[in-house]
Amino acid sequence: MGDTNGHVVAGGNGRGNRLDQLYRLTDVLIDKETDSLIICNWGNRRVVRWSRHSGTNQGEILIGNIDCWGLTMDDQRYLYISDTKKNEVRRYQIGDKNGTIVAGGNGQGAGLNQLNWPTYIFVDQQKTVYVSDHNNHRVMKWNKGAKEGIVVAEGQGEGSSLTQLSYPRGLFVNTLDTVYVADSANDRVMRWPKGAKYGTVIVGGNGEEKGVNQFNGLRGLSFNRQGNLYVTDYGNYRVQRFSIE
Question: Over 70: is that where the pLDDT of 1 sits?
């Protein structure tokens, strides 16, 4: 703590598709077992791994030919990756190039067995997969082995009421199955308790501006162990922190 300058740990060699370059990144996680970063390199249609060891000057391709947007890892080190073109989420063992479909995979659409531009994902300890179904303006829950999902946030079409979302992005689910979602086009973060018919606005929702209670194009969100909420405020070029009760 206390650093005022960042350090480049991956890329930094301009935009491109060489192994030492990155382009249009959408998500990243830290694999503690291998001390490496696993990155959704959406612009180059691949998932890459960069070692955090000093002297690393290029990444390695884990999965190619994939329009990856969101990724996460479960406690058994399976990777879950959303594909915005195939409208699906797959689970991969490290080293596996094909994976297994765990959500969607039935073409683009709004059916309960379909997704439309899935972005961020969350996987709980029961291997339940939650998906921000971006162009369907909803959050879907797919239980392990399920053939179709369950709408857990929204389902009333695009809009700004408390029963609606507009292009959801970042996603987090707590141990009570409460869903927190970055409601991107409405510039707010919403909380949807399990079984709720409508959500509540916990931060934002005050217009698309630069105020401390405002956003301009939300992307990812995350909580730390102290319960503080961190939100990527894309259009304002900043990350905001909030204390949530």
Answer: no
Do residues 128 and 34 both lie within one domain? no
What confidence category does residue 79 fall into, taking pLDDT thresholds of 50, 70 and 90? very high
CA 162, 228, 28, 77: dihedral to nearest 10 degrees? -100
What are the C-alpha distances in Å from 100 to residues 92, 97, 133, 201, 209?
7, 10, 19, 35, 41
Residue 170: which of 223, 127, 128, 213 has the closest Cα? 223
Tell me, yes or no, whether 39 and 150 share the same domain: no
For residues 145 and 91, give the distance between their C-alpha atoms in angstroms, rounded to a whole number: 12
* Pair of tokens at residue 163: 């029963």
**DSSP state for residue 15 in the 8-state scheme:** B
Q: What domain range includes position 54?
A: 8-65
Per-residue pLDDT band at 127 (split at 50, 70, 90): very high
162 located within any domain: yes
